[in-house]
Amino acid sequence: MPVLISSPTVIEAPGTPPKQILEYIGRVNSSTESVSIAHMRSPSGWSEPGQRPEFDEFTLVLRGTLHVETESRILQVHAGQAIHCSAGEWIRYSSPGADGAEYIAVCLPAFAPDTVHRDPEG
Fold first, then answer.
1. Which CATH fold topology does 9-80+96-113 show?
2. What are phi and psi of 24, to 5 degrees?
3. Does the pLDDT value for residue 16 go beyond 80?
4. How far, in Å, are 27, 29, 57, 101 from residue 7 at the CA level?
5. CA geometry: angle at 77 spanning 91 and 23, to 5°?
């Protein structure tokens, strides 16, 4: 039976300045462990600590440019482009451009704070 998800849950985000995470499907908003789908809005100058997650992450950029740093390079993912980061890969996301970035993130299995393995801040 279809289940209507009438609104997202706002999730607190790491990084500076703060970004907005609206989780539609995932462990918090829909009690879904197999996948999470979130709408992200990161302002100009936002960056977060690096991470080595236990989940695959698929990201579709809707507006602006998202920078995705790996251990060997920095990729610029522009509006209309997408990127797939595999589980176990070290990555760091940022939006240093003047327009920030707006994007949809899909995690398989669903994002969880204890499976993202963020680098220590500071």
1. Jelly Rolls (2.60.120)
2. -95, -45
3. yes
4. 14, 9, 22, 21
5. 70
55-107 confidence digits (pLDDT tens): 999 999 999 999 999 999 999 999 999 999 999 999 999 999 999 999 999 99
DSSP string computed for 52-78: --SSEEEEEEEEEEEEEE-SS-EEEEE
**CA atoms of 108 and 30, how far apart (whole Å):** 15
Residue 122 is predicted with a pLDDT of 55
107, two tokens? 């995690």
pLDDT of residue 14: 86
Q: Cα-Cα-Cα-Cα dihedral of 27, 64, 60, 66, to 10°?
A: -70
Cα 93 to Cα 99: distance, rounded to the nearest angstrom: 15
The H or E element spanning position 22 is strand 20-25
The structure's pTM equals 0.94
pLDDT computed for residue 104 by the predictor: 98
